[in-house]
Amino acid sequence: MVRIAFASNGEEGLKSKISHHFGRCPYYVFVDVEGEIVKNVEVKRNPFYNRHAPGIVPQFIRDEGADVIIAGGMGLRALEWFKRLNIKPITGVEGSVEEILKLYLRGELGEAAPCTEKSGEACH
């Protein structure tokens, strides 16, 4: 079984839209999959939404048992935190959790890359 955390703008489970930034999203959607079968979907509020600090959100994601974190973007320090915690980060996606989950299960998502100020992405 694999537990995937999705940074989300909403609390609609698989129908939620992916948030551009993992640490400043209001919700996380946790999806447990076995092979290609969804076993469980759980939505949790980001307890650090209004008080973001380096390292605290990656620790929360780890404490929730996630093996993978998927978000629209994240900064270099966050990527390093997740790698140290043995959580695979994936970035550069947009759409619904359901759409991105299908791409993930088909092996169509790339690796994570940090957002940059030059790209115009927020690096919080």
Outline the secondary-structure elements.
Blueprint: E1 2-8, E2 27-34, E3 37-45, H1 56-63, E4 68-70, H2 76-84, E5 88-90, H3 97-105
Parallel strand pairs: 1-4, 4-5
Antiparallel strand pairs: 1-2, 2-3
Question: What key phrases describe this protein's structure?
Answer:
Nucleotidyltransferase, domain 5; single chain; 124 residues; alpha/beta; five-stranded mixed beta sheet; disordered C terminus
How would you describe the overall organization of this protein?
- The chain has 124 residues and is an alpha/beta fold.
- Helices cover 21% and strands 24% of the residues.
- The chain has 3 helices and 5 strands, in the order βββαβαβα.
- The chain has a 5-stranded mixed beta sheet with strand order 3-2-1-4-5.
CATH architecture title: 2-Layer Sandwich
Give the H and E element order.
Answer: EEEHEHEH
Oligomeric composition of the shown chains: single chain
- Domains (count): 1
- Fold-level CATH name: Nucleotidyltransferase, domain 5
Annotated CATH homologous superfamily: Dinitrogenase iron-molybdenum cofactor biosynthesis domain
* Beta-strand segment tally: 5
Roughly how many Å is the radius of gyration? 13 Å
Shape: globular
In CATH, what is the class? Alpha Beta
